[in-house]
Each structure stands twice: as structure tokens, then as C-alpha cells.
Design goal:
Elements (H helix, E strand, L loop, with lengths): L1 E7 L8 E4 L13 E2 L2 E2 L1 E5 L6 H8 L3 H4 L7 H4 L12 E9 L2 E11 L2 E9 L2 E7 L7 E2 L19 H8 L7 H14 L2 E4 L5 E4 L7 H7 L3 H10 L6 E5 L5 E7 L2 E4 H4 L2 H16 L8 E5 L7 H13 L3 E5 L16 E4 L3 E4 L14 H6 L6
Parallel strand pairs: 2-19, 5-17, 5-18, 11-16, 16-17
Antiparallel strand pairs: 1-2, 1-6, 3-4, 6-7, 7-8, 8-9, 9-10, 11-12, 13-14, 14-15, 18-19
Amino acid sequence: MLYQFEVSGFKSFNEKFSFRLDGAKEYSFNREAVRNDVIKTGIVYGVNGIGKSNLGLALFDIIFHITQGFESNSAYTSNYLNLESKNDYAEFSYLFRFDEHYLKYTYRKKSLKEILFEEIQIDGETVASINKVESGTMFCSLSGADTLKTDLSETNIKSIVSYINTNAALDHRDSKNKTFQKFIEFVEKMLFFRSIEGNRYMGYEPEPRAISIDIIENGNLEDFEDFLNKAGISCKLCSIDKEDGKPTIAFDFGEKKLAFWTGASTGTKSLALYYYWMQRLRVDEDSASLVFIDEFDSFYHHELSAAVVEQLKKIKSQVILTTHNVSVMSNEILRPDCYFVMSKTEVSPLYLKTSKELREAHNLGKMYKAGSFNG
């Protein structure tokens, strides 16, 4: 699981910004929101423009050089570096915990495509590193990596992490190698999606798949219809063929049909995206490692928002949500160590934002509106 994260010099993050998920308290309620003393399901609040979306982008920068290559992504290619930073690079640091072992991965980038420095530590010991500013020589002490070429100065290798993972014959009986492999698997299964500004996602699947085709071909059309009806959207669905012969979902009005993506409201389209991913996330063996949903309930009624959080608590994935919806800030849904308030320098759980001892009976949403967590 992701334990801690730090970033600086990236987009809106000038100085070092910290996000810690290791601050679980001993609350006796909603225990499923925490796993092994790490926050499993968390919700981040913050004023407009504070950087909640940029937090998601910062967290997912890692996927572009470990799992997906350097593909173009407009969210990253525009204003990658913070304009006020004294450094000409952005620095990212991730601390993961896998069983009882810790892996820390730190790197610096000049742009999405240009890595200047990388270091991997496992249980406090540096096992791989490179500083391209000083030299192009890689250090790696992982068992089975001794045959790798270490002078990378004349190569087009961007990341030593993907280089080691792809080319080294690592001994998987070695505990450090096992931790390294779990790290790779975690990053490969990270998922970011949002429905504002269009249905977009990053990570988890290398190729996007049309939502309609996926629902129809997997035999989920009736289940999707039931899902929408339970969400308060009364409708009957069917499958029709588009002009290119490919199937798509439509609203069924008897003799007349209306293409789903033409007739659906913005909120209904958002639910379709959520349904698409939940078909995968609720299957443990295929579930994502970390799910970040930006403005997860922008188009939802508050009761639907609460129902979505309840569903996400049950899946295996570690989940981070951003929202402005205070109606889901309730001890009936999560707990004070799972709700976070974002500032320019950190994301802090509610219990650190007040001198009061927060208990199950407290109305967290009311306290938030009253400014109790502005400290």
C-alpha cells in the first residue's frame, strides 16, 4: 500500500508537499476503511484551486516511466514544472509498505520525459540509483542484476526501474527482489479516473475500451440498467448498432431508441464510467492497487455519493477520493483519520486540524462548515 508521498516543483507544488496515509487512529468504527494501520479509503477536501487535481496528477506521474512508457498526456505536458520553484526539476518521493517491508522510490524530472535522478531504498538500504547530472552510471545491488550494463550514458534508457525489471534475471526467492516486484505490480495496477471535463483515466489498462462495448460484450447490460434504476435514474436500456456496425447502448422507448451517449445527462454518463470501473475493481484478483477518483461525485445526489463511498470501502483497492461534498463527511461513512483537508503544503487528517478529541458522535460535516478544521 501507499504509505507516504511527497512532491515539490511540480505544477502547483512549489515547496515540499506531503501526503501521509500512515496516520490511522484506534477508532472502533468503520474499521474496513483502514488496513494494517494504513488508510485504505480516504477523502480529500480543499478549497477551489488548492491543487486536489494536481495531487492526483503528481501521484500518477510514476506510471509514465514504469508501466506505460512516455506517452503524450496533455495534463502533464502543459506547465509540468512549478513556475515559482528555484529548481529546474520536480522531485517525487513514494514510500510503500508491502507486508512488513518498506520501499522508498525517489526521482527527479526535468519534464515528463526527462529523468535526472532515481533512487530505490528497501528497508532503508539503497538497492539501486542513478544520478544522470553527475554521471550516467547505475548502481544496483539486487540479486540477479549483476549482469546488467551499468554505464547508461550512451543509451536511451529513461528509467532504471523499468530497465531492471525488464532485463535483470532477479532471484525471486530473495526478499528484496520480492519487495521490488510487488512495487512494480502495484504501480502497474494504479488507476486514476475522473468524469469532469469528459470521462478520462490513466493507468491500469494499457488501451482504452469503449464503455458501451464493454458492458454489452460482457453481458452486463441488464445489470447496468438495474444499477441506474437503483441510483434513481428510471430507464430501460437496449443495444443498437451504430452506422459503423459496432454495438452501443440506447434508451429503449418501445418503437423508438435514443443512443445512450446522446440522451444521457452528465451525471448519468458519470455513473456509466463509475460502473465500468467497478466491474473490475470488485473482483479481488483483478482489482487495482490504488484508485484515485478526482471530484468523484461532481454530478451525484448526496445519497448516491454516500452509497458510492460505501461500495468503495468494500473493494480490495486502496482508494483516494477528492470532493467538495460535505454531506459525505460523516462518521457513519468513514472516520476522522480518513477525511483529509488539503493546504498548500500538506494533506492533513481531520483529527490533526483541531484540538478537540473527535469521537463517533461528532457531526464532522457540521464542524467543517463551522470552520473547526481551519487550524
